[in-house]
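Hi team,

As requested, here is the filled-out complex form for the adenosine-5'-triphosphate run. I kept the field names the same as last time so the parser does not choke. Let me know if anything looks off before we queue the next batch.

— J.
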Amino acid sequence: AKTETLLEVNNIEVIYNHVILVLKGVSLNVPKGGITALLGGNGAGKTTTLKAISNLLHSERGTVTKGSIQYRGARVQDLSPEALVKMGVIQVMEGRHCFEHLTVEENLMTGAYTRNDGAGAVSADLDMVYTYFPRLKERRKSQAGYTSGGEQQMCAIGRALMSRPETILLDEPSMGLAPQLVEEIFTIVKNLNEQEGVSFLLAEQNTNVALRFAHQGYILESGRVVMEGPAKELRENPDVKEFYLGMS
Ligand code: ATP
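And here is what came back:
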C-alpha cells in the first residue's frame, strides 16, 4: 500500500530581514505514521524550516519568499499557528517553553485549549499522557520551573499531545539533556508513533540518536537538503558516517 503524505514542503526559500537568505529551496515530505528526521549542524536551517511550516517566522522578521507548504493537500502557508493546530499539526519549540509558574498538570491542560470535545475526552487524554510519561504523573503538582530539563522537555511534548495532534514538529528534543534522558525521550516518541499513530518531523543535531529512531531523514547544510533517504541507508552512507556520526 502507498503511504499517505501528510506534510509536503516544496522548494521553500526563507529570507530574514528582507536580505538574509537562509533556506535556499528546501523540499521534504512527512509520511503518515512515520518519524522523519531533519538533520544538520548548527545554523543549517532546521529551526527555520519548522517555523516556516508552523508560520512562526513573522516575529523573527522571516518570510517564506518562494515555494509551497501543504498539509493533506491543502495550502497552510498563511494559516495562524492556532489554525494549524486545529488541522492537527503542532510544534514543540526548542528550549521547551513550559510555563514555569504553572504546575506540570496545568501546563498539560493549556495544551487542550483549542479543543471543544468536552472535559471527559480531555481527562482521558491527560491519562494517556501520564501513561507515556510516568515521570510527569509523579511531578504533576510541581511547579514546572522547578522540574528538571528532561521533565520540562517531556512536559512540552505532553502539552502538545493534549491538542490531539496528528503530526508533531519537534525541535531539538535532545538539547542540553544527558544521554540517558535523550534515550528515554526518543523511546517515548517511538512509542507514541507506534501506539498512538502520531507522525513526527524532528529537527536534531544529534544525528546518531535521530537516525536510530527515525524511519527517514533529510540532511540540511547551509539551507539546502544535501542528502535524504531511509534512516538505515543514511546510517550506512560513508559521508554521513564521516561527517555526522564521527566514525571516519
Ligand atoms: P540550531 O540548531 O542552532 O537552531 P538550525 O539548523 O536550527 O540551527 P536556524 O536556527 O534555522 O538553524 O538558523 C539558520 C540560519 O539562519 C543561521 O545562520 C542563523 O544565524 C540565521 N537566523 C536564524 N534566525 C534568524 C533571524 N531571526 N534573523 C536573522 N538570521 C537568522
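Two things worth flagging: The pocket of adenosine-5'-triphosphate is lined by residues 16-17, 20, 22, 40, 42-48, 60, 62, 172, 205 (CB under 6 Å). The longest strand covers residues 5-16.

Thanks,
J.
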